Amino acid sequence: MKKIFPLLVLLILTSCQSYKFENGKWSLISYDESVGRRVTVIDGADQNSFVPINNEYAKDGKQVYWETLVIKGADPNTFVCLGQLYAKDKEKVFWREQEINGADPDSFQIVDGANLWSKDKKDFYFGEDPLHVVDVASFKIINKGWAKDGKAYYAVPLFKKVRKVEVGKVDCDYPTMKILSEGYAVDKNHAYYGNIQIESADIKTFQAKGYFSAKDKYRKYFLGEDAGW
């Protein structure tokens, strides 16, 4: 399952929910097939100043909320929704309830919101994570798991922090780096699952079989680990 899938599910679900003042409290009303109508009280909300912004965001006199979660540090007076789960205030940018660390609200742009890509004048971002791009001007997206600029490659794992795969620059041999799938790559020295070097891989025969699986003439791999025969 790819990261894009749960995001699409989330977008569908948020279209079937809304904020409502019910039984003396503001709540998020949602619906699902297994439970039916679900009522979740917005804990800690100031009932007198609470205002829905849309069916995903709300605010009161002190805080801003994504669904039922407080967006820590968001300014309710300058907060605006940008669409596709992105928002900003006068000082910060947010993806869902998370601050996008270091993002500049004045120059921020959504590049591909469905696949979690955004940028500002100095960097690119994957969800809430900065990539710390070396050369912003030459940066380009390769697929849903990889990107590069003129000096470096970047891993953006579809499942974040799987096997300690982090978002960001990959320590590889840039001239010989070859992307094999959304999960795997090789250079002249190593095979990679995201930014993790697969030390046991036979580079000459290494093949990716999609995001999760790969093999060489000696072994099979799952999520970058030796899966045996």
Task: Give structural notes.
It is a single chain. The chain is mainly beta. The chain folds into two domains: 102 residues, no CATH class; 99 residues, no CATH class. Helix content is 5%, strand content 38%. It has one helix and 27 strands. The strands form seven sheets. The protein has a four-stranded antiparallel sheet with strand order 4-5-6-7, with no helix packed on it. It has a four-stranded antiparallel sheet with strand order 8-9-10-11, with no helix packed on it. A four-stranded antiparallel sheet has the order 12-13-14-15, with no helix packed on it. The longest helix is centred in the first third of the chain and has 11 residues. The chain is elongated. 31% of the residues are buried. The N terminus is likely disordered.
Concise account of the structure shown:
The protein has one helix spanning 4-14; strands spanning 17-22, 25-32, 36-41, 51-52, 57-59, 64-66, 69-70, 80-83, 86-88, 93-95, 98-99, 109-112, 117-119, 124-126, 129-130, 140-141, 146-148, 153-155, 168-170, 178-179, 184-186, 191-193, 196-198, 207-208, 213-215, 220-222, 225-226. It is mainly β.
